[in-house]
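User: My advisor asked me to double-check a structure prediction for Myotubularin-related protein 12 before group meeting. I don't want to rely on an old file, so could you generate it fresh from this sequence?
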Amino acid sequence: EIHIKEPIEKEVNPRLLPGELLLCEASTVYKYVQEDGSNRGTYGKLVCTNFKISFLDDDSASDDNEPQFKNKIVGENDITLQCVDQIYGVYDEKKKLLTGQLRKYPETLIIYCKDLRVFNFCLRYTKEEEVKRIVSGIVHHSQTPKLLKRLFLFSYASAAPNNTDGRNQTVMFETLEDWRDELERTKGNVKYKAVTTNEGYRVSEKLPLYFVVPICISEESILKYEGRGIPIWCWSCHNGAALLKMSSFPKEQDDSTSQMQKAFLDGIYKTISKPPYELLRMDDLSSSLPSLQDIQTAYTRFKQLFLIDNSTDFWATDVKWFSLLESTNWLEIIRRVLKKAIEVAECLEIQHTNVLLIEESATDLCCVISSLVQVMMDSYSRTKSGFQSLIQKEWVIGGHSFLDRCNHLHKSEKEEAPVFLLLLNCVWQLVQQYPPAFEFTETYLTVLSDSLYVPIFSTFFFNSQHQRDTNKSGESLKTQSGPFRFLTVWDWSVQFDPKALAFLNNPLYAEKPKPDRSQRKTARFKHQRQLSLPLTQAKPSTKRGFFREETDHLIKNILGKRIGKFINSSDEPPNSLREFYDSWHSKPVDYHGLLLPRIDGPEIKVWAQRYLRWIPEAQLHGGGTIATAAKILDLMEEVQSLQVKMDEEHSQAVSGDVHSVPLLRNSARLSSLFPFALLQRQSVKPALPTSTWKDLEDEDDLVKRDDEFVDLSGDML
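Assistant: Sure, here is a fresh prediction for Myotubularin-related protein 12 from the sequence you gave:
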């Protein structure tokens, strides 16, 4: 049975961005909402542009039903072409992957997205010619290889007015002054210098225009091997120890070349190992961490667990959730990366040793570890502007190959690997373990991960600064005489209005107090105890890790078990590292000092907001951390309004910094996955009960208690 909503009579046209062109469209397309297997849905128009695939129904014509967390660029039913992961067609109830030229056209189109949304479009009632056009158009424009200049990034940059927000405080690291300021901030300017050797990219196209090296390194050394074998400065610790990175020489070389390179490296090591430099520890990440291929394989398996478009599939996999999750190896990779960052932090903090990270290009795992270490050790990197500056320094200017790793041009799947997403997953572990230490929220990390696939920003669409600079010229386009003016993703006002931006700021952020040390320590101790999560008290039972000792264990079985991951790892850290780890965790947390992630057993969790936000079965109605956040925002709004009344002279300044969100004050109960998932989709019991549901048969009253859902805030978000 199909519940049909009448086709729309009035014409609905897509909202096009500057430079966006309509390529093909199909009317009378039926979009399924398959959360309960009833095939309910709505009719509308499916369109494909040079920027996105979009479904337009009658709700698209009005602003009455706009979501509470609206993205101004990408709507709820929009999929950017770069966000399309795979496209399947359904032929006689059989799914087939669609690529290249099609001989036969499907009756249903299924689009799997990189942000884990799943769209089902029924084409049974659409005209045959329109079906051919729309299916061929979507497959061609989203799946076939394309030239860099064919990205919508260039169309938008040539047509959009340049009216971006100038208040962006992110350091872009595009000038020599930016690097010198960073050296001064970290007090690394005594032993390290910013160099201009690569101006005009005469050393290497992979290196940035400006970078920092030890003062003792000569210009001739930098030029000799195109920057390879040169230790490049990342960050300096408060005690003078520094974090460095280096691109290694190719392994397959003839003997004479290898001998020359070895002698060159020996000379470099001796130079930077003697005073005034600290002792040097080298760490080859290619041998101590998983390969990029391993990371890609693990993530491919992991994301399949969340690309679910109906309740039956969800509950069918629920009973074997732990084994499925463990078999992906994704959480284990996160744990290994965090453990490596702890090792580096221990060398810098305790042993006062310089750490040199070595990798073939020094632009993948080097970026992950160096960024994580700075987030853990430098409280500035835990502010929003500081974190964004860190991403600019280590990733964007540092030369991470976003274009290849995200496979934006669909040229080679061999180069694809979710390296940046791995970093965000690791940072999320810290954010959810120590919320007051971060100025930004997990929602900020989620929208940042989504922005990887929005090609109006140049931030994540080039392989290097050189590639960006050489393609910035618009001379090849007849309509463009001057250089392109690309947007940066750090101007969040392009995507969100002020109400939505409030969700990116953490209302519980413990700002750095004035330097009264005795008072600060006392306050920090109390603050940490009040906000600590009770996870450390929960001990997993021997039976598959369920929370058996909790009173509402059944609800936790069907929801909580999707989040915790129980690992019995055999590779225990060395004794000195374990002592460092245990000693730090035995003391009160200094939210503006060193932070060490908890990496034992179930402490490594699934990033629920990102991976479960489109699955209604995983939502807690009226629960989760969003319920707490809503109350806090309400209280903040009330306090601020009282302050305005008390001091009218400061009313403008106070109201200008309001983080309140009046839209939260409504009678509707929020989902734990708000603001991404609203209460429009309800989950129902599957037709074929699983063992979990059999356990629940005698607990109907427990399931029906709407207002008594267990708060899994620590697990869910």
